[in-house]
Amino acid sequence: MIGRPQVFYSPGEGGGDGGSDGGDAVATLETGEHWLDTNPAYADVAGDESARNILGRYATEADQVKAHLELRRTASKPYHLPDDPAKLTEAQHAEIDQWRAKARGVPEKPEDYQINVPENLEVSDEIMGEFRQLCHRTGKTDAEANELFGLHLKTLEFFNGERNKIFARMAKGSAKTFEEIDCAGDKELAGSRMEQVRQYLQTFCVDKDGEPDSKEWEKFCVRHFYNGQMMELILMRALHDAARLKLGTGGSPGGGAPTPPEGSRYPTMTANLKRQNRG
Fold it and tell me: Which positions ≥6 away from 212 have C-beta within 8 Å?
């Protein structure tokens, strides 16, 4: 456990550095000429060995009084450090840092942080571990760690919002261009062709056994769709003819109602597309 740190004094500011160095005092103490022995007022003190060891280091009574006053001034402060921090040893630095961390309420271990993570947010244990390590290394309290985590979430929310605005403009612009230029302004035809492209893409989202894999489809949608609308115009143009041929519409401009391959294997994935809102 970390107790109260030692008191570190600047030279000449108490702690035994004030007054005489005690060399002469020791000599006179041994010869019986010390002021403790010559002043009757200190007769009782002079007979106390522990008191004699303390007071005997001062050559004069004035030195003792001066040191006492300096000690009282220093003791009135919480602690006193050298004016030059470089004079502290690494051990003293560590002791002060640990005592200060404990006084502020910094958790003893990184694992002790209680971070309030929203229920709908998935964060890996590795990332949270690094975050706790950072907070502990920089001396954050539990409250400060949660405040920092909350600020991070707000920052992510802002950038996600800006990103979604870009994706929304891309999806809207691509759909409009595809309808006006590639489908001669025919909104119904554009919608039919886009549905064909979606179903065509789904035929490639299969697992190792060749069965429809909705997770693969959802991962693809996260990268290429926004709110159910494909964002890349080039991808729409490159695939719509191949999609009509694949789905048995013969590639005719008007097409027919698209029919998913092998009956109704893919409707669930089509429905899942509507949930890809990226936010």
Answer: 202, 205, 206, 265, 266, 268, 269
